[in-house]
Amino acid sequence: MSATLNPVIGREFFGILRSPKAFGTLLAITIVFSLAVLLRWPTDNTADLSGQDSIQVFRVFGYGLLAGIVMLVPAFPATSIVNEKNSGTLALLLNSPLSGPAVYLGKFLGVLLFALLVLFASAPGAAACYAMGGIDLLGDLGLLYVVLILLTLQYIALGMLISSYVHSSDAGVRITYAIVFSLLFLTQAPGLLFPGSLSAFGGVIDVIRFASPLPIIMELMRQDSVANTGLISQSGILWFVAISLISTIAYATVTLSRLNYRLFDRSRSKGIITDDQSLGTRLARRLLFIVDPQRRKAGIAWFLNPVMVKEFRSRKFGRSQWLFRLIAVCAISSVVLTLAAATGVTAWGTETIGGLMVLLQVVLIVMLTPSLAAGLISGERDGGGWELLRLTPLSAFRIAWGKLLSVLWTLSMVLLATLPGYLVMIWIRSELLPQIQLVMVCLAWTVLYALAVSAAVGCLFRSTALSTAASYIAVMTLFLAPLLVWLGRDAPFGFDLVQNSLLINPVGAAMSIMETPGFAQYNLLPQAWIVAGAVSLSMFLLFGLKVWRLTRPV
């Protein structure tokens, strides 16, 4: 269907392309992937008949392209429907001669065309990678692009489904990225804990694992599967294709069923306060809830920052009942992961277990921090609350400190929730105590680092959705780029370049301290802490300067 038959396609597609950031992204992708191949291009008359050099470059290319799809694609469909609904144009579209399915198809194809441009921008790098030899055109490059196209379709359908349910664009971005990360990484957890199972439960684990493209991509890159179970490529690919297509169709069907006038109906509960209930109800709720969300809150104490309290009480995720649930999940996950190794469920050593725990914590930090910190300023400006803050006697420093402190408390509690797993490791091997202490310092720097970058990037934008998406992209780039360089160690990147790249954030230092395979040979302390401190300080200063400028009289 062309844009002339469905004007929504052209409206969505050209609306994305009009942004200078979109053009800059396409140009950057083309340059980066081409340079990644050219850096390893042979400079003499010898040829690598084994194909090892080309495979190493292909790994950097494939993982980089996967990261690009994960970071860029979900942001656009996650705001597609909710922006139309909030601006009032969705009602006009549904009242136009276009049907609901035509509107959905137009928006879907508009975002898909931009996503295909992102894939096509990598074509020069793919051609150069194939020219180096050792890479099959259909079995490697062709299959890689098929997997990424299916993943793109799934993410677009998922983002539009989330966008049809949420009431703000920033909520759509946050929830979509959280689900994308869960599908990408958390689906691998059952296979990691129970590798090689031959029971019916093992078949369920394989199905769950193939909801993510990681096992397929790792096999294409000539690497072991995530669970090291020696998967059969053909069956794995068929499972991934089936799961991705079925989920895409299911997401699209549910969204189409909602794309009508009932989408504008929003039921609102009258609400109920626990203090107004009978004595028996109040006693029952005190037994069932550690923190009762319906209980009247006490006044703000004089020693507390009122902006911090305001953030905790007005931010849904910041409320205590959700925070306690997250902490419980983190604590249980860390203990289960450690006990799985201690009881012989897996054949991993403490080095691998420690590395996985670090990755678990980093994934949580990367998932949570941009969603909490990106909208600290833009959310107030979007909702009109910033003018109220300016009318208060609070100084710019106290406003900035209160907002940052509200996110820092949340992230610190999540970080501390994984301590039980480390305590089990110390109980098993007491000599690990000095290593774990250094790892905790690295993770503390990671929290400050992610918070500083997310807050600084987010405060540069007025729109909450745009600031959230930009913060996610910035944080994921800073955390994933060193790992992509690490994947290309020895070919095409040398030891010094890999070590300097791992200094960008403290995660590599934590992995090297735990002597995780592939990281043990790098000496990253104390340089990684110095870099993290310098970057965090500069980002906090940028955030504070922006708050100070916004509090000045116009």
TrEMBL record:
InterPro entries: ABC2_TM (IPR013525). GO terms for molecular function: ABC-type transporter activity. Keywords: Membrane, Transmembrane, Transmembrane helix. Signal peptide: none annotated. It is found in: Membrane. It is a multi-pass membrane protein. One of its GO terms (cellular component) is plasma membrane. Residues 42-252 form the ABC-2 type transporter transmembrane domain. The chain crosses the membrane at residues 22-39, 60-82, 102-131, 143-163, 175-193, 200-217, 237-261, 322-347, 353-379, 400-424, 436-457, 469-488, 528-548. This is ABC-2 family transporter protein.
